[in-house]
Amino acid sequence: MTRDAGAKGLDARLVVRRPEFDLDLALAAEPGEVVALLGPNGAGKSTALRALAGLVAMPAGHIRLDGTDLRPLPAERRRVGMVFQDYLLFPHLSVLENVAFGPRCQGAGRRAARRRAGEWLERVGLAGYASARPRALSGGQAQRVALARALAVEPGLLLLDEPLAALDAHTRLEIRAALRRHLAGFAGAAVLVTHDPLDAMVLADRIVVVEDGRLVQEGTPAEVARRPRTDYVARLVGLNLYRGTAEGGTVVIGGTEGEHTLDTVDSLQGEVFLAFAPSSVALYRTRPDGSPRNLWRARVAAVERQGDRVRVRLAGPPFDAVADITPASVAELDLSEGSTIWAAVKATETHVYPA
Amino acid sequence: MFKRTSAAVLAASLALAAAGCGDTGDDTSSGGGGSKTLTVFAAASLTETFTALGKTFESAHPGVKVRFNFGGSDSLAQGITQGAPADVFASASPATMKTVTDAGDADGTPQVFTRNRLVIAVPPKDTGKVAKLADLSRSGLKVVLCAPTVPCGAAAKKALAAANVTVKPASEESDVKAVLTKVGLDEADAGLVYRTDAKAAAGKVKAIEFPESAKAVNDYPIVEVKKAPQGALAKQFIQLVLGAQGRAALTGAGFEAP
Amino acid sequence: MSRSSRPPWFLLLPALAGLVFLVLPLAGLLARAPWSTLGTRLGQGQVLEALRLSLVSATLSTGVCLLLGVPLAWVLARASFPGLGLVRALVTVPLVLPPVVGGVALLLALGRRGLVGAWLDSAFGITLPFTTAAVVIAETFVAMPFLVISVEGALRAADLRYEEAAATLGAGRWTIFRRVTLPLVAPGVAAGAVLCWARALGEFGATITFAGNFPGRTQTMPLAVYLALQNDPQAAIVLSLVLLAVSVAVLAAMRDRWVRT
Description:
- The complex is a heterotrimer.
- By secondary structure, chain A is of the alpha+beta class.
- Chain A has helices at residues 45-53, 95-105, 110-123, 139-151, 169-185, 197-203, 221-226, 231-237, 327-333; strands at 10-17, 22-29, 34-38, 60-65, 68-69, 80-83, 157-161, 189-194, 206-211, 214-219, 240-254, 259-276, 281-284, 295-306, 309-315, 321-325, 340-345, 351-354.
- Chain A has two domains: 2-235, P-loop containing nucleotide triphosphate hydrolases (Rossmann fold, 3-Layer(aba) Sandwich), CATH 3.40.50; 238-354, CATH 2.40.50.100.
- Chain A is elongated, with a radius of gyration of 25 Å.
- The two termini of chain A are 28 Å apart.
- Mean pLDDT of chain A is 86; it is low at 1-5.
- In chain B, the strands form two sheets. In chain B, strands 2-1-3-10-4 form a five-stranded mixed beta sheet, with helices on both faces.
- Chain A: Residues 7-237 form the ABC transporter domain.
């Protein structure tokens, strides 16, 4: 451990015991890197963030930032900037005073602190709102002030707890782009908590997936999107995911009733994941001619409209899957819940990677 | 949060209202059924004596209940002039009695039935600092008197003036009991109180008689109230107070014969 | 609120009844006031002396209540230790205790022969009864619960996460308390202080018992009113009106300044 003492950036093992779950998470971030903690509600993402900020005690583990262990330090001495989910701007202070709060606490004089706060407000494009009260701001503006307030303490580590969750869909798009710019300009390590895969994909350099207080997958957004390793991630990125055993060009997966063999193009051996997109699943009323290799009969469990596509949930045996088809196909296939159809996926549409 | 608070306030006020409704106060309606109630307004210093005399009166007059209202003579007199239903008024000072007679609320001339005089009250753990009235003027001594506006204070003022003693009191208390409390707790070194009060508080304070108290003797007049609901009983009660039995009870409590 | 500005009858009727109930005694005072001699009565030195003493002592005791009561409220709202419920109940004791009993209790604790008072006397030569300090102490005793309860409620309702946000910005506990917690509960503190001041201003029983009654030193307006009531009810009415007018004026002014932020 001591060999990392001089390392820059964040290197942490977060351990928090809670009645509902135990959090035990190793987390690292280079200076300038944005790491997203992605996971379902109650997985311990926010607890991890609070542990980093010093708002919950850790019975074990460490938090090293640029070589200094933060764990023994109280929150106010960690130089960690945090943007809270609902921003928590002090309602009794003006926007400028909110941003100047941190510099003041760091010992800056009133005028110096205000000048610094003014610069930050300018950077987030809210210089005109310096004397406004937080309650007069829109959600997006409040988020930017919260960001400016967190950055004004010049933190070595920036923490963002669901920074976009409180915004409506339209504002969200805009603010996400702005946040991406500000994060890119931030020299320290940043950790972002979100349950929205899109936020994570857009904002983060690396994604850490947390389930039940444990790291279950880690990688660049592209890796995570392409090679999900849990059902949760597969659902998030919209892929059919199976675990199985590969042997040459085939993978044997455990279906709902016994095993089922699928043909693939990747040639691996041993424990693997197999993934394919719902859009690559073709559906037929009758057994198709020419017989694609991966063909199976399935029961239609549900038909849901999703945007301009229709998602069809197929129930096993042999295995569960989802398929995306066009509304026109639905009519052609005369799909209804409970009916039985033929489904096929080409070997070239499957993707196999080691488990 | 605001909603919850207001609900709590509402619940509390309803509870209070309910409690108020429950208290119908029907103990005042005991006049019916052949029994009669005699209402006596008497100075607070008469509490023990008159309560005993009331029992005597009740046993001599079966079916009669005597109800007392003890309090400061002034407030009692005010009550009577405002029309409070009293049969007898026994005051601790002729001056307050005068407000009743002046208002035309007295039936007949008030009669002085007893007298009270002042004593010096000192804490039970007597240090011998105070032996006579002139000692009260000593500096460093904490003396409490009744306020000049209440009878015991007026009497104290009169006695001190007659003895040519100047006292700088630490406090001018609202009544004798307050003076006794402070002396009894040893917060004050001395106070001027009625002899009867000192006697009632025997053990808690020590009483020192002083000759100048003769200059400020308090007369206690008693009278039947004009619109007395129980006029006949009122006259009989006044007779009891003025008679031998009344006198014995009063002197036993430390009062003097008029 | 947005539905209708007109209150429903089932609230309006009891509200009006309540208002009448509160205002009626005031009407009684006004009706019986000796208006013709008001001027000469007010000119008497004792009235102004008592008024001044009342205002000064009520303000001082409110100050003491703030100084001690706000931290006490914080402990009640935030700390957790065995016996907290008991402490909370103890804080409300002065509310249920008859003020005269409170006065006696103060004598027994802080009097010349009291638990602590005897030590104060022997060690420092300080005796509290019959002094203006005793008036302030008596008023503080009866008024403090109003402040504590009001501030504790505000602290409980306040969002703790603002304090966490302040901590992440580098604020120590004192800074958090001063710049975040206190401003957030300011309306509660203000309301508590107003209640506290009003209660102190009207304090009678504990004051007369613990501090006694001497013009210029311990005779506050309520004491003056009570003693005047013994032999000069009209003077008592005048004094009451003065107390009432001054307190209403002060409370209204404070409300305007504090409650409308």
